[in-house]
Write a structure and sequence with these properties.
The complex is a heterodimer of chains A (about 130) and B (about 650).
Chain A (H helix, E strand, L loop, with lengths): L1 H30 E6 H6 L9 E7 L5 E3 L4 E7 L4 E6 L12 E8 L5 E8 L11
Parallel strand pairs in A: 1-2, 5-7
Antiparallel strand pairs in A: 2-4, 2-6, 3-4, 4-5, 6-7
Chain B lengths: L1 H28 L2 H30 L6 H6 L6 H6 L5 H19 L8 H25 L23 H16 L1 H12 L8 H31 L10 H21 L6 H25 L16 H24 L12 H31 L3 E4 L1 H28 L5 H20 L3 H20 L18 H25 L2 E7 L4 E4 L2 E12 L3 E12 L2 E6 L2 E5 L5 E4 L1 E3 L4 E10 L6 E9 L2 H27 L1
Antiparallel strand pairs in B: 2-11, 3-4, 4-5, 5-6, 5-7, 7-8, 9-10, 10-11
Helix pairs in contact in B: 1-2, 1-6, 2-5, 2-6, 5-6, 5-7, 6-8, 7-9, 8-9, 8-11, 9-10, 9-18, 10-11, 10-13, 11-12, 13-14, 14-16, 15-16, 16-17, 17-18
Classes of the chains: A alpha+beta (about 130), B alpha+beta (about 650).
């Protein structure tokens, strides 16, 4: 009786766990995004070409241009050693500015330009409010 | 003044530590004198915390920039209301507030020291104070709100203008009330574990349940306020981004929801009792863990920079809690076999199913949130998951939850049985699967199940008992205030799901560069940009766009989104404009302006059904309020 319950429970756990595991794997696979800093990226740039990437860096002073006709924002994302040009066409957060730390998500194109799909600024450290 | 605050914290630490010792000793020796002393020490610690908060508030109002917390979060130009709200604008202040609320709630609930309950309340207080000691240490050594700033700045850094918004003023403290209130079920569980006598439906059990509901209410309000603010203010048109900080408030909310359902079926010495113990510990741990996760940079969030420090103490606290709980659980249930004779509603096992789904949701969200950290453990390469992971993985679980919700009025009373209602469920399920296969999306399945749940729940309100199954154990529902409250909450959940599905699946997004007089089509609407107006304020210049939205040549709305440039800080702030209706919102943000040619960039969104999220949220608050009123009334009559 007791072993029967345990076997039943085990099978239940396996089936449910397997199902959820499969779902999670499926969901993860398509939203996998490799996390690099700009410096790491330049080292691995050949390996990183075909993946979705998430890169953190600083917006280089004097590099921001906005083309209003094409609705495109271009800037240079700088690490401590390396840099990468970024093109972005989505909504720009209000606190985006030169010298800010930002995170971009997207892909590197063949010309070595990073095509960002999302652009995130962080709340400044002095505003370390527990917001949201 | 700051010395007084620092001293109050030190004294509070000493008192909390003392209270843990005497309460444990008093409970062990059943000594009324010691237990009394423990209670008094808890109240004294509360007084110390009150003094510390008063001092910090005083410093903030007086703009005493020699204190670094004040210098970092206020400035002379900041209005008084925001100077007061700066108490919870930073990590140190919000931790202080959380601790104050937590000790305050515990002092309110576990204050009885009569013969019957003295051991129980002493144990409960001891567990609260044990947690407090950790908070005190972090407040004194790591995140002191009273640390000095060297050198003293001439003016403070001020508050992020984005946060100067009523919703953002209320959002953090409501969440903290929720987190703090969850200490009550946590402490109750610990005391019940230590108690070897029978713990039935005692008044303290009722308190634990009521405080879980209060916590749930405040967490709900806090989460919704955050979402609403993001939608109104951030100009990105969304309300939820699956960011680690957001997730860490959602996870305890999910497990607290499970906990509430679990309380409903609690019977001492059953499997449910054990499960409730675990669930209550998990819920409280998630509050602590969420704080650790986001404040100390285990995973980075958009919200703030990681600040390494003594945050590891939070983990130490969690390890302590779980080791002690494991020992107590083992000790208690080794001697106390499960009582399998207890019977109750036939639907009890479906409440367990609800619990499993909630816990599963929490698990997948937690895994996703921790993924950058977890992947860093196994590989060199950190991998993060994009938000669509969360959407994909939570959608099927949400669908299952909705189906269960729709069936619940029937399942709870009758269980699964062969009659026309269960037949309806089968039909609905098959239709849903077919819809999913045909449309290859989850939106239509969601609407089908939402409709099914809405009809079932509404029909149940008007059901007077006729037409119920003739099979065994049919119980007529007693329609009390509490019953109506719960029904309103459940219907509101359906409304929120309708809003989420509509606004995410049928959203239309478009960006356009327009010169004055030009127009662009989005969905069924035509958006025409008339021109720019300039509004000059004391420290800003705002460009206001004049936009006419029309449908079939009929104007439906005039919207005026704006973009302000602040001369002093060089910052810009955009203000979106929204035409709201129950059908859909037209949301327009001015994202860029060329002041010479008057060329503007607009970001336009059509968000169908989004207002049902806010309406449903109001329903959650209303329904929960009704249930709380009925609990309060009952406690008065008992």
């Amino acid at each position: 009786m007791r072993t029967k319950t345990i076997v039943k429970a085990l099978i239940g756990v396996l089936v449910i766990g397997g199902g959820i595991g499969y779902f999670m794997y499926q969901a993860m696979q398509s939203s996998w995004s490799y996390y690099y800093s700009v410096d790491d990226l330049s080292v691995n740039s050949s390996a990183a070409k075909n993946h979705s990437l998430r890169i953190a860096g600083t917006v280089k002073q004097g590099s921001v241009t906005r083309d209003l006709q094409k609705m495109r924002l271009t800037f240079t994302l700088a690490g401590s050693k390396a840099e990468v040009p970024v093109h972005y066409e989505g909504p720009v957060p209000d606190n985006f500015a030169e010298g800010k730390e930002v995170v971009v998500e997207g892909r590197l194109d063949t010309a070595g330009v990073f095509r960002a799909e999302t652009l995130m600024t962080r709340c400044e450290s002095k505003y370390k409010a527990k917001v949201k | 003044m700051a010395e007084l605050g620092r001293f109050a914290l030190l004294l509070g630490l000493f008192l909390s530590g003392y209270a843990v010792l005497v309460d444990l000793l008093g409970a062990w020796r059943k000594d009324l004198g010691l237990v009394k002393s423990g209670r008094n020490a808890t109240v004294a610690a509360l007084i110390c915390l009150t003094v510390a908060i008063a001092v910090l508030w005083g410093l903030l109002v007086r703009c005493d920039f020699s204190i670094s917390y004040v210098a970092e979060h206020t400035s002379r130009a900041l209005p008084l209301a925001y100077r007061l709200s700066a108490l919870w604008a930073g990590a140190a202040g919000s931790l202080l507030l959380w601790l104050w609320l937590q000790v305050g709630f515990a002092a309110m609930v576990f204050n009885k020291i009569d013969e019957k309950e003295k051991v129980f309340t002493a144990n409960a207080r001891a567990s609260v104070n044990f947690v407090s000691v950790f908070f005190f240490i972090i407040l004194i050594l790591d995140k002191s709100p009273f640390a000095l700033s060297v050198p003293v700045p001439a003016d403070g850094a001020g508050m992020n203008p984005l946060l100067q918004h009523p919703a953002m003023v209320l959002h953090p403290p409501t969440l903290f009330i929720g987190y703090a209130a969850l200490i009550i079920p946590f402490a109750w569980v610990f005391a019940a574990l230590k108690d070897n006598e029978k713990q039935g439906l005692s008044p303290l059990f009722i308190q634990a349940r009521n405080w879980t509901l209060i916590a749930w209410l405040f967490l709900t309000i806090g989460i919704v306020l955050g979402a609403w603010w993001a939608y109104e203010e951030l100009g990105w048109g969304g309300y939820w981004a699956w960011d680690p900080v957001e997730n860490s408030s959602l996870m305890p909310w999910l497990t607290a929801t499970a906990l509430l359902h679990c309380f409903r079926t609690y019977k001492p010495r059953t499997a449910i009792a054990r499960w409730l113990t675990v669930l209550s510990l998990v819920t409280f741990s998630l509050c602590i863990f969420g704080t650790f996760l986001t404040r100390y940079g285990l995973v980075s969030s958009v919200h703030a920079f990681p600040e390494p420090g003594l945050g590891i103490l939070f983990l130490v606290l969690l390890v302590h809690i779980w080791v002690m709980a494991a020992v107590l659980l083992w000790r208690k249930y080794r001697s106390e076999p499960i009582d399998s004779q207890v019977t109750g509603l036939p639907g009890r096992k479906f409440i367990r199913l609800n619990n499993w789904l909630m816990v599963l949701l929490t698990f997948v969200i937690l895994t996703g949130t921790l993924f950058p950290f977890l992947s860093g453990l196994f590989t060199e390469q950190k991998i993060s998951l994009k938000p669509d992971y969360f959407t994909k993985i939570t959608a099927p679980l949400g669908l299952a939850l909705l189906l269960l919700l729709g069936m619940c009025p029937y399942l709870l009373r009758n269980g699964i049985s062969k009659n026309w209602r269960m037949f309806g469920v089968v039909i609905v399920s098959i239709t849903t699967v077919i819809a999913w296969l045909l449309t290859k999306g989850l939106a239509v399945p969601f609407f089908i199940i939402c409709g099914f749940a809405a009809i079932n729940l509404t029909a149940d309100i008007f059901n007077n008992g006729s037409g119920m199954g003739k099979d065994t154990q049919t119980v007529r529902p007693r329609k009390t205030l509490r019953w109506y409250g719960a029904r309103i909450v459940h219907i509101s959940v359906v409304l929120i799901f309708i809003g989420i599905t509509g606004s995410s699946a049928y959203e239309i997004e478009k960006q356009a560069a327009l010169s004055p007089g030009e127009s662009v089509a989005i969905g069924k609407f035509n958006v025409k940009f008339g021109g720019l107006k300039t509004d000059r304020g004391p420290n800003y210049t705002a460009m206001i766009a004049d936009i006419t939205v029309s449908k079939d040549q009929e104007p439906v709305a005039r919207l005026n989104p704006s973009l302000a440039f602040y001369s002093d800080s060089g910052k810009q702030a955009s203000e979106v404009d929204i035409k709201r209706s129950l059908g859909s919102d037209i949301y327009i943000a001015l994202t860029a302006v060329d002041r010479n040619s008057e060329l503007v960039n607009l970001r336009m969104l059509i968000k169908p059904l989004i207002n049902w999220i806010w309406i449903g949220s109001a329903g959650l608050v209303l329904g929960t309020g009704l249930v709380l009123i009925s609990f309060y009334r009952r406690s008065r009559t008992v």
